[in-house]
Write a sequence for this structure.
């Protein structure tokens, strides 16, 4: 059922986009009232020299700063607590998250935890009712073109049982996102593929969501086309194609903007369930699942699938709708193959006997996105999709 005319909120951070914009970090931090900044990142980003321009801009504005390099994939709850402890102990008054989605989510949640009880149980409660308080100011600077965490009202964390959980709310939104394509220029090919495909899924899920509306659909059509045209060259050519890098950063940010206004659905829900049982990246969890979920969802929105095919460069003129919509499934499969992402669960270490556990997590933890799927999903449906992907 369409929600096209239902009310919807638009909530985005201030977003500054363009080459070299990280040089304005210090000025933006000062305008937010900062005197002492904590740069939140991981060892890889720090080692790559991506913090240099940010540090220089903070020094120029006479803002003291420290660096937390302890971020880990999938945002473990204990890492959020460690970052919040350092924030409070060092009396930092702003957090600057520089990295991929897990880094930015750590910064978002640590900014809130630093102003609260900051124990792991308190942080875990964010995934039940949303964060209960406004945190410290935060600036987010992505170094990948994919997660869109810089633009989202949501964050992901992993609890101490290894379950990947989501949370969302007004207090999670960054004060400012700085989207500088030059920060992604030397991203390795595999990370380019994984993060870029995550961005594609944000746009695709928002586009096929029953909660889609005119603004979200306009953003989705733009971002699906941008990714279809630019992910392959960004993957193959990297720093030799700065234009493709630029367009991928724009696509990633606005794909997440769209999904924040509408809703992710079954691919992200199943992807997080998969990541709860196997140590894999978010982009890979989506690449092995999306084509099979598309085949399941196709009867619910064939017109949208046909339009996706067209946006991805397929010729659909004169085709009957079922044939045109199948071209959408094929185009996505071809994109996954071209950027050389895994296409089978067994290829990433999933055992068939783990499928029931993933289905349990899907319906216990990720049920909101399951309910937001364009086609109703039963446990039996989920088992069949996982088995087909295996």
């Amino acid at each position: 059922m369409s929600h096209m005319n239902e009310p919807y909120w638009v909530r985005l951070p201030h977003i500054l986009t363009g080459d070299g914009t990280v040089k304005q970090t210090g000025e933006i931090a000062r305008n937010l009232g900062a005197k002492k900044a904590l740069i939140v990142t991981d060892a890889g980003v720090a080692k790559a020299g991506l913090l240099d321009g940010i540090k220089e801009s903070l020094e120029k504005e006479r803002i003291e700063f420290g660096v937390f390099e302890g971020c880990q994939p999938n945002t473990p709850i204990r890492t959020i607590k460690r970052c919040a402890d350092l924030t409070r102990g060092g009396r930092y008054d702003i957090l600057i998250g520089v990295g991929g989605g897990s880094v930015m989510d750590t910064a978002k949640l640590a900014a809130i935890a630093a102003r609260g009880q900051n124990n792991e149980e308190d942080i875990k409660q964010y995934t039940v009712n949303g964060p209960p308080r406004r945190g410290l100011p935060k600036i987010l600077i992505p170094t990948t073109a994919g997660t869109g965490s810089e633009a989202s009202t949501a964050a992901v964390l992993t609890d101490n049982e290894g379950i990947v959980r989501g949370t969302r709310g007004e207090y999670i939104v960054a004060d400012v996102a700085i989207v500088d394509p030059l920060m992604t220029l030397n991203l390795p090919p595999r990370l380019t593929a994984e993060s870029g495909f995550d961005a594609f899924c944000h746009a695709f899920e928002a586009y096929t969501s029953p909660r889609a509306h005119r603004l979200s659909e306009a953003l989705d059509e733009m971002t699906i086309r941008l990714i279809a045209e630019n992910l392959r060259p960004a993957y193959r050519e990297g720093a030799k194609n700065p234009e493709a890098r630029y367009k991928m950063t724009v696509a990633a940010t606005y794909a997440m903007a769209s999904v924040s206004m509408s809703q992710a659905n079954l691919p992200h829900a199943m992807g997080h369930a998969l990541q709860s049982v196997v140590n894999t990246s978010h982009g890979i969890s989506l690449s092995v699942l999306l084509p099979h979920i598309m085949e399941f969802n196709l009867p619910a929105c064939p017109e949208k699938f046909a339009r996706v095919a067209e946006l991805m460069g397929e010729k659909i003129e004169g085709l009957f709708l079922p044939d045109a919509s199948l071209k959408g499934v094929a185009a996505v499969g071809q994109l996954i193959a071209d950027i050389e992402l895994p296409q089978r669960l067994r290829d990433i270490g999933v055992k068939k006997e783990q499928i029931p556990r993933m289905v349990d997590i899907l319906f216990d933890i990720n049920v909101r996105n399951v309910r937001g799927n364009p086609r109703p999903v039963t446990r039996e449906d989920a088992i069949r999709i996982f088995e087909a992907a295996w």
In short: Residues 214-237 form the longest helix (24 residues). The chain has 16 helices and eight strands. The chain has a mean pLDDT of 94.
